[in-house]
Write a structure and sequence with these properties.
Helix 1 (14-27) packs parallel to helix 2. Strands 1, 2, 3, 4, 5, 6, 8, 10 and 11 form a 9-stranded mixed β-sheet that branches. A 6-stranded mixed β-sheet has the order 14-15-13-12-16-17, with helices on one face. By secondary structure, the protein is α/β, with parallel strands linked by helices. The protein has 25 helices and 21 strands. Helix 15 (422-432) links the parallel strand 12 and strand 13.
Length: 667
């Protein structure tokens, strides 16, 4: 007889599903079980993956996405287990999770359904793991944000029970639909999920009906799962927000009888909260436009001060038009140039758009004489804006905070790989080959019981999993990548949970060694290198811009820095090779940034630029570099060469030089 039936509903999250099924395989060891996956018309190859990699899984293929509740009901009718587990595909379960939950229900016959502790990918507790029913007061405090302002208050923190400890087990109103462990008797008496809830709310409704039938709903802290929240829904932000609040409205209307005026007020609050949540969810897309508008206004104020010796000296009729219209025209021009899409950090596009916008503004003054106070001020404001708007983007990219989706900078992601064996070395090698993603693999973390010192594959072993918190803080790590087979799920959960307070992203590499699974993203671990017809470095415009940049920077350094270094460091060795070779840059024999002299002819038939005083290869001179990595460096630079990239490389070369000098002086 089947003891536990696990039901997973999948919709276009193949990699997450594969990871969840692998973790389930370990958790179901020694348990008479079955796993049923319902695929809701996925188009990402999920069905083929299940049939190939998990042939023992019972697969139900739906021709359409009929909703979470309907899909679960399909599987519930076919399930044979004494216990039923509804599990989201974007989860990771511990080895003991199923056994702990089964044991808990066996010891507590009054409990009909239970949920476990749920962690976010960064190790923090996920509030949805335990909840109260959304009565008007509870819903009101949740909607207006009082529950967030006063999480420890029993009066305001009732919806997510934030005033109660997460390290205790107790009765609650409802648990998260991402993990619901229940008895078959409960399902047979209460029935399945209400299909009136397409997505969201069906878990609350089910828990309410189970309570009304006489069983308890409990939160169990003794085991946990990781939930990559939101991946299993794969809906747009607007759809997701609207569906969530509509589900809350349906739940209240179905189960609670209140005066009409109260329900109308709650409905208005829900609509307002939905709109506010939508606006806030899009703030990340809007903030560059807000900054640009403020920059234009500041440029106008500065131009007024430079021209008139004071500020806010325009006639009263000019306000607020003189500040609103120019900023709107600049933002509109940037928008039409595609700057507020995935190119929000484009320096070239933003500069061009600002210049065009101020040319248009200058022309407008000929038609609106009442606002033509000073064309000189328009020119000054245009010059300042054309410097500041691309400038803050350049600094943002140089400091490694560019938005995902574009080319990451050289300072983007300080990464450590957990695992010093062949798997860890293979992951580190593939990550180091991803040049354009800005991944800087700084070292390895040894698994429990492994040596925590020395060097492996040219990378230092920085510590062990037990001491990883200290390593993350001291080395300012931003990403931790766990190689396959290095840690058990229990060890993984302990590592993530123990470092939940750090701003670090934990990512897993499944056994296929093809992807990185992390918070709200799946990244390809190994990209196919496509040979492009044209490389940036071969374009005449890029060659001219690079030569102008070389001459300008070299001349400036020779005039301002070189004389002082020449006087203070009389020996050639102490002056440094970079400064010594600046005359060669002026003469055109070499460039500020480029390949090493030995690598210039590394790839036959491809112009790689003149030898450089620094470059991608030189930046990695402190460790062994394979031929494959050198080719990746050369191709990456040739493909992406720009003045901004040269500036980034120069900046990092300076930082690394200073760091190496400090280390040398300390030893």
């Amino acid at each position: 007889m089947v003891d536990v039936s696990v039901i997973v509903v999948n919709y276009n999250v193949r990699e997450y599903l594969a990871n969840a099924l692998r973790s389930l395989r370990a958790s179901l060891q020694g348990v008479r079980s079955e796993v049923i996956v319902v695929d809701n018309a996925s188009a990402d190859g999920s069905v083929e993956m299940i049939r190939k990699q998990f042939p023992r899984v019972r697969l139900i293929v739906s021709d359409e996405n009929s909703g979470f509740a309907h899909a679960n009901n399909l599987a519930l009718r076919k399930a044979k287990g004494r216990y039923l587990l509804l599990l989201n595909p974007d989860t990771l379960v511990r080895e003991d999770t199923v056994r702990v939950m089964r044991s808990y229900l066996e010891k507590h016959p009054e409990v009909g359904l239970a949920g476990c502790k749920i962690l976010n990918p960064d190790g923090t507790f996920q509030l949805a793991a335990r909840r109260s029913f959304p009565t008007p007061w509870t819903a009101f405090t949740r909607i207006v944000g009082l529950s967030r302002l006063f999480p420890s208050s029993k009066l305001f923190g009732r919806y997510n029970l934030t005033y109660r400890s997460v390290e205790e087990s107790y009765e609650v109103d409802a648990v998260s639909g991402s993990f619901m462990f229940l008895r078959r008797d409960v399902y047979e008496k209460v029935g399945g999920l209400d299909e009136a809830f397409f997505m969201y709310g069906e878990d609350l409704d089910w828990c309410y009906r189970i309570q009304r039938a006489g069983w308890k709903i409990n939160y169990v802290h003794a085991t946990s799962i990781i939930h990559y929240k939101g991946e299993s829904t794969r809906r747009s932000n607007l759809d997701e927000i609207r569906t969530f609040y509509e589900a809350m409205q349906v739940f209240v209307g179905k189960h609670f009888k209140y005066p009409k005026w109260l329900l109308v007020g709650l409905k208005i609050s829900i609509r307002a909260a939905s709109a506010a949540a939508f606006v806030l969810s899009h703030f990340r897309r809007l903030w560059p436009a807000v900054i640009d508008a403020l920059v234009v206004d500041c440029a106008i104020i500065a131009s007024e001060y430079l021209r008139r010796g004071g500020v806010f000296l325009f006639p009263d009729r000019a306000y607020p038009t003189v500040y609103i219209i120019p900023s709107l025209i600049v933002v509109a021009t940037l928008l039409s140039a595609g700057v507020y899409t995935r190119r929000s950090m484009s320096v070239t596009r933003s500069w061009t758009a600002v210049v065009v916008a101020f040319i248009f503004l200058s022309a407008l003054t000929a038609f609106f004489k009442e606002y033509a106070f000073s064309r000189i001020m328009v020119v000054i404001a245009g010059i300042l804006s054309s410097i500041a708007i691309p400038g803050w983007r350049m600094m943002f990219r140089i400091m490694g905070r560019s938005r995902p989706g574009g080319r990451s900078t050289l300072f983007g992601r300080r990464t450590v790989v957990v695992g010093t064996g062949p798997e860890g070395q293979a992951v580190a090698e593939r990550l180091r080959a991803r040049i354009t993603d800005g991944i800087d693999v700084i070292g390895l973390i040894a698994a429990p019981g492994s040596s925590s010192s020395g060097t492996v594959a040219g990378l230092p072993v920085l510590g062990t999993v037990e001491s990883i918190g200290k390593v993350l803080r001291s080395h300012k790590v931003t990403d931790v990548v766990v190689a396959p087979g290095v840690l058990t799920n229990t060890q993984l959960f302990a590592m993530i949970g123990g470092n939940s307070g750090l701003p670090v992203s934990f990512q897993l590499v499944p056994g296929t060694m093809e992807v990185l699974i992390g918070k709200a993203s799946v990244e390809s671990l190994e990209r196919v290198a496509l040979v492009e017809v044209a490389y940036n470095i071969e374009l005449p415009s890029r060659r001219i811009a690079k030569r102008v940049f070389d001459v300008t920077v070299a001349a400036a350094l020779l005039i301002t820095v070189y004389p002082f270094v020449y006087l203070l460091a009389p020996t050639r060795k102490r002056r440094g090779s970079f400064l010594r070779n600046l005359p060669d840059v002026l003469s055109g024999r070499c460039s500020l940034v480029g390949p090493t002299a030995e690598a210039v002819g590394y790839i036959p038939g491809l112009f790689l630029g003149k030898p450089g005083l620094t470059g991608l290869i030189q930046l990695h001179a402190g460790r062994p570099v394979s031929r494959e990595e050198i080719e990746q460096f050369l191709l990456s630079y040739a493909r992406n060469q720009s003045v901004l990239l040269d500036l980034e490389i120069l900046f990092k070369s300076f930082i690394l030089h200073r760091r190496r000098r400090r280390i040398a002086s300390a030893t």
